[in-house]
Amino acid sequence: MIFVTSIEKASRSCASGLSIVLCACFLFWLVGLSHVKAGDRDDEVLGIVAAHEKQINDIASKLWHYSELGFLEEKSTRLLKDVLNAEKFRITENAAGLSTAFVAEWGNGKPVVGIIAEFDALPGPRQDILPQHVSVPGQSGTHACGHNLFGAASTVAAIAVKKWLKKNGQP
């Protein structure tokens, strides 16, 4: 069972790389516990992550542009739930009584894998996607914390783990 819970060019390519690395690291750890031979396993994990590069980039970019503060992440929450719903995860809304918290589950039995996806922004003027400081007028949140990357990588990691488990007969 997998569950996810929540409580320009140069910048984008760096962000993309970090999200992919986070996703791949998690998968390498998980599949290291499996019966699949190491060399084959590593290639398989990298292939699964690489296949989701565009999806990671798209999610991270949308979360960056939404820049919603903690407990106010309405668009961000909807985005992640929609992505996970499309992958047939069961969604439980309002986790812990919070309107922006949710649990997404897939499968049953073991292994049980928990992945947290943080995607809230920090208060303050939002930085534009430029290598120098340029605020975006009218925006009150910023992802200086990298949670847009964390949220994207965690969400896609859950999808990739699901695919890896299904492929290796471990639902």
Number of helices: 5
Question: What is the beta-strand fraction?
Answer: 5-15%
Instruction: Classify the oligomer.
Output: single chain
Helix content: 40-55%
Q: Which class of secondary structure composition applies to the elements?
A: alpha+beta
Q: In whole angstroms, how far apart are the ends?
A: 7 Å
**Radius of gyration based on Cα positions:** 16 Å
Mean pLDDT: 79
The biggest sheet amounts to: 4 strands, mixed
Low-confidence segments: 6-16
Succession of helices and strands = EHHHHEEEEEEEH
Number of strands: 8
The coarse silhouette is globular
What's the topology here?
Blueprint lengths: L1 E4 L3 H23 L6 H14 L1 H14 L7 H13 L3 E4 L8 E5 L6 E4 L5 E2 L2 E2 L7 E2 L4 E2 L4 H21 L4
Parallel strand pairs: 1-4
Antiparallel strand pairs: 1-3, 2-3, 5-8, 6-7
Helix pairs in contact: 1-2, 1-3, 1-5, 2-5, 3-4, 3-5
Please give a structural write-up:
It is built from five helices and eight strands; from the N terminus they run βααααβββββββα. With 171 residues, it is of the alpha+beta class. The strands form three sheets. It has a four-stranded mixed β-sheet with strand order 2-3-1-4, covered by helices on one side. A hairpin with an 8-residue loop joins strand 2 and strand 3. The longest helix is centred in the first third of the chain and has 23 residues, at 9-31. The radius of gyration is 16 Å and the shape is globular. 36% of the residues are buried. Residues 6-16 have low confidence and may be disordered.
